[in-house]
């Protein structure tokens, strides 16, 4: 997706998407069956929402993580000493083959430049019979946490490049990508991380920090258009408190 930006402060990411992804992490780790004693990889770790969950299950020395974003790699290293955190992309993982019991990617496949290659790389570094698991928001079905935002943006500009056509975000597509990448026993499921927001302003503010496609879009607007978008969102959501549905398509398979 042109213009997607994760060259932002980790704390801005925490406020914007980390507030949901930290709730998703135990669900994805459960899906992958991560448990004590396993050696596991977090692909596209960001500042470490899932990394922290993996560390709590299997210990820092058994966790490796990679992300292409330099500020996120720095943050994950600082937050989780002892974890082997590297700057790399899924499509070219800097590991020998068969070294992990499980490889996970949370909210990453839709940003990969080559999702099939990225998932195949996750399988390559996982031992035979080990688990590869991933999840991405249900952007196409409008049950991801950004649904109200993109609805409002589309109502202002029907041609806006929302995230609904990215790889994996429509029903069944993530599992298809897993099959294309050669994984065995592929199973699809749904994970949820619904979140209550106390006020509209607390929900909106992180959209103004330039994180991801939504943040890049807000930053591209004039102050007047930003205000119009904000008020369209407020009209849909109210002043709060309100609960935002955050549903993700998930897939797991065996290497
Ligand atoms: C929405 S964030 C998810 C971060 C973290 N996994 C979480 O759940 O909070 C997407 C992440 O994917 C990373 N990313 C983008 N393209 C990638 C690629 N080709 N391979 C691996 N990670 C990638 C970004 O840098 C960003 O950290």
How would you describe this structure in keywords?
alpha/beta; 39% helix; binds S-adenosylmethionine; 9 helices; seven-stranded mixed β-sheet; two-stranded antiparallel sheet; 255 residues
Show unreliable segments: none
- Global mean pLDDT: 96
Write down the secondary-structure element order. HEHEHEEHEHHEEHHHEE
Task: Give the N-to-C terminal Cα separation.
Answer: 28 Å
Strand residues, percent: 15-25%
- Please work out how many helical segments DSSP would assign: 9
Which structural class should the secondary elements be placed in? alpha/beta
Q: What does the radius of gyration come to? A: 18 Å
Strand order of the largest sheet: 3-2-1-4-5-9-6
The count of β-strands is 9
Topology:
Layout: H1 10-32, E1 40-43, H2 49-58, E2 63-67, H3 70-79, E3 84-87, E4 100-106, H4 115-124, E5 126-137, H5 147-156, H6 173-180, E6 184-192, E7 195-197, H7 200-204, H8 212-220, H9 223-237, E8 242-244, E9 247-254
Helix pairs in contact: 1-2, 5-9
The structure holds S-adenosylmethionine (SAM).
S-adenosylmethionine is lined by residues 6, 17-18, 21, 43-46, 49-50, 67-69, 72, 89-91, 106-108, 111-113, 118.
């Amino acid at each position: 997706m042109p213009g997607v930006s994760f060259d932002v402060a980790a704390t801005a990411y925490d406020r914007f998407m980390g507030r949901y992804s930290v709730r998703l992490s135990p669900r994805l780790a459960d899906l992958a069956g991560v448990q004590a004693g396993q050696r596991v990889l977090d692909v596209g770790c960001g500042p470490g929402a899932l990394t922290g969950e993996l560390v709590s299950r299997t210990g820092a020395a058994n966790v490796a993580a990679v992300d292409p974003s330099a500020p996120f790699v720095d943050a994950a290293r600082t937050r989780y000493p002892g974890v082997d955190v590297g700057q790399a992309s899924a499509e070219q993982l800097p590991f020998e083959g068969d070294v992990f019991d499980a490889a996970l990617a949370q909210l990453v496949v839709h940003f990969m430049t080559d999702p099939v290659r990225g998932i195949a790389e996750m399988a390559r570094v996982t031992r035979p019979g080990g688990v590869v698991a991933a999840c991405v928001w249900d952007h196409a079905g409008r049950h991801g946490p950004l649904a109200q935002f993109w609805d409002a943006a589309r109502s202002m500009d029907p041609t806006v490049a929302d995230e609904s056509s990215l790889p994996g975000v429509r029903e069944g597509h993530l599992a298809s990508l897993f099959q294309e990448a050669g994984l065995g026993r592929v199973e699809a499921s749904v994970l949820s991380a619904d979140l209550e927001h106390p006020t509209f302003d607390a929900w909106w503010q992180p959209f103004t920090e330039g994180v991801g496609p939504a943040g890049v879009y807000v930053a591209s607007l004039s102050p007047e258009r930003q205000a119009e978008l904000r008020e369209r969102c407020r009209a849909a959501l109210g002043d709060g408190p309100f609960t935002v549905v955050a549903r993700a398509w998930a897939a797991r398979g065996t290497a």
